[in-house]
Structures are given as structure tokens and as C-alpha cells.
Design brief:
The protein contains four helices and four strands. By secondary structure, it is α/β, with parallel strands linked by helices. It has a four-stranded mixed sheet. It is globular.
């Protein structure tokens, strides 16, 4: 069953190395698991897959769980040798990526983007020490 307010549409195409998915609605706690299952399916079903594009133009918003699922999808695609692209990012997604420091990690092709196999690490100014005090920077 699809959670209310969110759907994932596979865009037609003949290139088996590229899959395009459209994200519609609000990516939140209610639909996060459903989103991840659907978005991960091409990794299992398409052995020739080299690129997975999420068209986010119809994404109305997301919460921290939605962002966590996108980050999980990024880790899965990187492990499979597949490039993940977040296309047509609306301002709400840009803002979430910017304030969480995940923009560089999720947007391939940027000069400052980390290697696809690198683990995500929060910027130094967002880290905290083990005792809860602000980290360096």
C-alpha cells in the first residue's frame, strides 16, 4: 500500500543502464520505508544499472526521516557502483541539504563532492564532542 501523499513513478526509457524515478508528495516518516524499498528496487532488478536519477521537481517536502532514506539510498547506490542523481531539486530540498551539510555528499559532479565510496561525515562546525559541547570550528 502506498502511503498517502507520496508516490514514486518510474519514467519510461530503453536504456537499461539508467533508471529515472519521479518523487511526488512529502517524503516523511510515514512513507520513508516505502520510498526506500521502491527506490532500491532497480539496484536489485537491473544488473546493468549505472545511474539512478531521482526527479525531485514534485517533492513537496521532507523531514529528517526522508533525508535519512535518501542518504541510505546514496550508500546503497555507491556500494553497487551506481551513480545517484537528485535532479530538479526544489528549494525545500536544497535548504534541507544545505543546513544538514549533506549537499556535497549527495550531489555528484561538484568539485567539492567527496568520493562515492567515502562515508558521510558531518562538517566540523556541526559536530559535537562526546560530552555534548560544541566541536571544533
Amino acid at each position: 500500500m502506498t502511503p498517502a501523499g507520496m508516490k514514486l513513478i518510474t519514467a519510461p526509457g530503453s536504456d537499461k543502464a539508467l533508471v529515472r524515478l519521479e518523487v511526488h508528495g512529502f517524503l516523511d516518516y510515514e512513507c520513508a520505508d516505502h520510498f526506500l524499498a521502491l527506490a532500491s528496487r532497480p539496484l536489485e532488478d537491473s544488473p546493468d544499472l549505472r545511474a539512478l536519477h531521482l526527479d525531485c521537481r514534485h517533492l513537496d517536502g521532507l523531514d529528517s526521516m526522508g533525508l535519512a532514506m535518501i542518504l541510505t539510498l546514496r550508500r546503497r547506490t555507491a556500494a553497487a557502483g551506481v551513480t545517484l542523481s537528485l535532479d530538479n531539486r526544489p528549494p525545500v530540498l536544497e535548504r534541507m541539504l544545505d543546513i544538514t551539510g549533506t549537499l556535497e555528499y549527495l550531489v555528484p559532479g561538484r568539485a567539492d563532492a567527496p568520493d562515492a565510496s567515502a562515508d558521510f561525515e558531518r562538517p566540523a562546525h556541526r559536530r559535537t564532542a562526546e560530552d555534548g559541547s560544541p566541536g571544533p570550528g
